[in-house]
Write a structure and sequence with these properties.
GO molecular function, one term: methylenetetrahydrofolate reductase [NAD(P)H] activity
Protein name: Methylenetetrahydrofolate reductase (NADPH)
CATH class: Alpha Beta
CATH topology: TIM Barrel
Order of helices and strands: EEHEHEHEHEHHEHEHEHHHEHH
Number of domains: 1
Oligomer: single chain
Enzyme class: oxidoreductase
Strand order of the largest sheet: 3-4-5-6-7-8-9-10
Keywords: Oxidoreductase
EC number: 1.5.1.20
Distance between the termini: 30 Å
Number of strands: 10
């Protein structure tokens, strides 16, 4: 066990850290939205320098708010990765404008490309592959492009099965091999390690070599997590939360991702070639709460990895 001493203002005393979990949490990332970021006085008091921070672009959020949030985070020394949701981008000119704004005001060189949560596209784009095919990210010098992954399927893309999602990942894997883009699959959150491991292994067996950054829901009230899980289409692992809700001794206690992270970390330690390489947190119970949990358990960001 290692002893973790905090130098950040999280008001957490030194604790013993499981080295297996500590290793698994290195170089973790976290997701924020402009409206949640506004509630944080200073991210530097919560997150290690160089942490990759995704800025989620929810439909209806002005691009000005997105860019301002990205600029603030970049100025504070974080690696900023804004979302580019295809279905809310009108056309190529709009995409080029967004890229130029992010680069001009926040020096952004990383992006998460995804279809987005709206059902009907507002313009020319309906999926992340179309964004990649424009060549605009390459022309602008972006060095890292992440794409979405769904360990428990995506009902918006495949009502049943995973045929369309699997085909899209094969296309993106081919894109990685024929371009200079550094890529990763950033996934939806899930609560049960077993389906996650099965899914990740299936990617490897299918020849998908893009590394996986597994989505993990941060500490939150159980009711909050169940609400988000249903809204986001989380499948089999929702039973983990439902089972917890039936236990009156745990019903009022906040959920923490200790069990799922511990199981994934142990699997990674036993299988070093496991294709899940990083943890990506969804701070559904608040950014500060998530940051404290991550660092209490040994999470720290590797600045060199963030700069590439």
């Amino acid at each position: 066990m290692a002893l973790l001493n905090f130098r950040k203002k999280t008001d957490v005393p030194p604790v013993e850290v499981n080295p297996v979990i500590e290793s698994f949490l290195q170089d973790f990332s976290v997701e924020v939205m402009p409206r949640t970021a506004e509630k944080v006085d200073d991210f530097r008091e919560l997150l290690p320098k160089g942490t990759r921070v995704y800025v989620a672009h929810i439909d209806g959020t002005p691009i000005e708010d997105m860019v301002a949030t990205a600029a603030r985070l970049a100025a504070d020394g974080f690696c900023v990765m804004p979302h580019f949701p295809a279905r809310i981008i009108k056309d190529r000119a709009t995409l080029a404008d967004w890229i130029a704004r992010y680069q001009g005001e926040a020096d952004v060189k990383h992006a998460l490309l995804l279809a987005g949560g709206v059902k009907a596209p507002v313009g020319d784009f309906s999926d992340s592959m179309q964004l990649m095919e424009t060549g605009l990210f390459d022309q602008a010098g972006f060095t890292r492009l992440h794409v979405a992954g769904h360990p428990e399927g995506n009902r918006d893309i495949d009502a049943q099965g995973t045929e369309n999602v699997d085909a899209a990942l094969r296309w993106k894997n081919d894109f990685q091999t024929r371009t200079d883009a550094k890529m990763a699959i950033a996934t939806q959150f899930a609560f049960d390690a077993k389906p996650i491991i099965t899914w990740a292994d299936s990617l490897r067996d299918a020849g998908i070599t893009i590394p996986v950054h597994i989505g993990i829901a941060g500490p939150a009230k159980l009711q909050t997590l169940i609400k988000f899980a249903i809204a986001c289409g989380v499948g089999p692992s929702l039973k983990v939360l439902q089972k917890r809700a039936m236990d009156v001794t745990k019903l009022l206690l906040p959920y923490e991702p200790t069990e799922v992270v511990s199981e994934l970390a142990a699997h990674k330690a036993a299988n070093p070639d496991f294709n899940i390489t990083n943890v990506h947190f969804f701070p559904l119970g608040g950014i500060k709460t998530n940051a404290i949990w991550a660092q209490t358990n040994g999470g720290a960001s590797a600045v060199p990895a963030k700069s590439s």
